[in-house]
From TrEMBL:
Belongs to the two pore domain potassium channel (TC 1.A.1.8) family. The gene is Kcnk18. This is KCNKI protein. The lineage of its organism: Eukaryota, Metazoa, Chordata, Craniata, Vertebrata. SUPFAM superfamilies: Voltage-gated potassium channels. It comes from Oceanites oceanicus. It is a multi-pass membrane protein.
Length: 391
């Protein structure tokens, strides 16, 4: 029996792990599929569009030719005037005149564009030009942004749990180290005596009799008999409920004989996992300084790796680029030479956005607490003091 029960326990444990991980994997897989479908859609629509050189393009070339000819004819012309003319002319230029759409809207380029859409980064380097592409971009963002926020909230719960447990373990270890330093021979003996007394009290933890209740609560004796008996009865019931263990319903736990109940319980657990999304993030309570330190270390690691394939970026520029990306500001002033390499770094972006989101949430909670203290302080100052009149 023991040999057969162990594989069954292993299968049940695997099933529990699978159904516990299922909601998280479902969200991430949905986001990946959504990104791939969007990449296929935009690469087909925007990549296959025809570029028609308009009359404005010919005027642009004509004006550029006139400026360059005037510069060669009159070398004494002021350079500032020449710069102003060139600057004004380049502002009228359009990107489509000089770039082939197929070079921009490759599959990886379109996938990078989709990631910038539903993460709300929006660098501005790549954007739809056709009318149908713009409409589909709005529709794509309408469903992609909530899905991305759902993934951020779900994975934020995991990070919040890890951070909370790590911080609590660190505090426990810190308290143990401080206790061992402050503990001397005499104090330790006293502490051991106190612990032994506490343990003995915990061991002798049985239901009290009526006489013991009356002895331990002398205030009960001073009450009328009717209220005294009711209070004693309630105290005894509460004491009894603390020591009675809930009976296990064996008929429901026999899953092997009733697989329908097993499926029902499994589905209810999966639904509970979906309902618990965002709960751990609300319970997170770690210092905001710790989160700032985590963000700094996290961005510094990427800033040290990114210049290896983006040769135009140094550590400071890469740090700035990662910060602008993770905070979803996305100016677009720093352009990447190899966006598909950074696309494979998308997991880093998602986790980093979650860390920044957690830091913003903690900062928001601290600000709300500060506003409450300020308002209560101002209310106490403005509240008139009560005057006591003699009788």
């Amino acid at each position: 029996m023991a040999s057969t029960s162990q594989p069954l326990r292993g299968k049940r444990a695997c099933k529990k792990i699978f159904w516990a991980v299922f909601p998280h994997a479902c969200f991430i897989l949905s986001l990946v599929i959504y990104a791939f479908l969007g990449a296929l859609m935009f690469s087909h629509i925007e990549g296959n569009r025809k570029v028609n050189l308009s009359e404005e393009y010919r005027k642009f070339l004509q004006n550029l030719w006139n400026i360059s000819r005037n510069l060669s004819d009159n070398m004494t012309e002021n350079e500032e005037i020449f710069k102003e003319k060139i600057h004004a002319l380049l502002n009228t230029a359009e990107r489509d005149w000089f770039v082939n759409p197929k070079d921009i809207w490759t599959f990886f380029g379109s996938l990078f564009f989709c990631c910038t859409v539903f993460t709300t980064v929006g660098y501005g380097n790549t954007y739809p030009v056709t009318r149908i592409g713009k409409y589909l971009c709005m529709l794509y963002a309408l469903f992609g942004i909530p899905l991305m926020f759902l993934v951020l909230t779900d994975m934020g719960d995991i990070l919040a749990t890890v951070l909370s447990k790590s911080y609590n373990e660190f505090r426990k270890l810190q308290s143990k180290i401080l206790a061992s330093k402050l503990c001397s021979g005499s104090t330790c003996n006293k502490g051991d005596e106190l612990k032994s007394r506490a343990q003995s009290k915990e061991v002798i933890n049985e239901p009290l009799t009526i006489m013991e209740v009356l002895k331990s609560h002398p205030g009960v004796k001073r009450k009328p008999i009717k209220y005294r008996n009711a209070e004693i009865f309630e105290m005894l019931i509460a004491r009894e409920n603390e020591h009675t263990k809930p009976t296990r319903n064996k008929s429901i736990e026999r899953w092997s004989s009733c697989p329908e109940l097993a499926r029902g319980k499994t589905m209810s657990r999966v639904i509970e996992n979906f309902d618990k999304i965002g709960k751990q993030l609300e319970k997170l309570d770690v210092p905001i300084v710790l989160m700032v330190l985590v963000i700094f270390v996290y961005i510094s690691c990427a800033a040290a790796i990114l210049p290896n394939w983006e040769t135009r970026l140094d550590f400071q520029e890469a740090f700035y680029f990662c910060f602008i990306t993770l905070t979803t500001i996305g100016f677009g002033d720093t352009q990447l030479e190899h966006p598909k390499f950074f696309l494979f770094f998308s997991l880093y972006i998602i986790i980093g956005m979650e860390i920044v989101f957690i830091a913003f949430k903690l900062g928001q909670d601290r600000l709300i607490g500060l506003y409450k203290k300020v308002i209560s302080f101002c209310g106490e100052k403005k509240m008139p003091s009560k005057k006591i009149y003699p009788k």
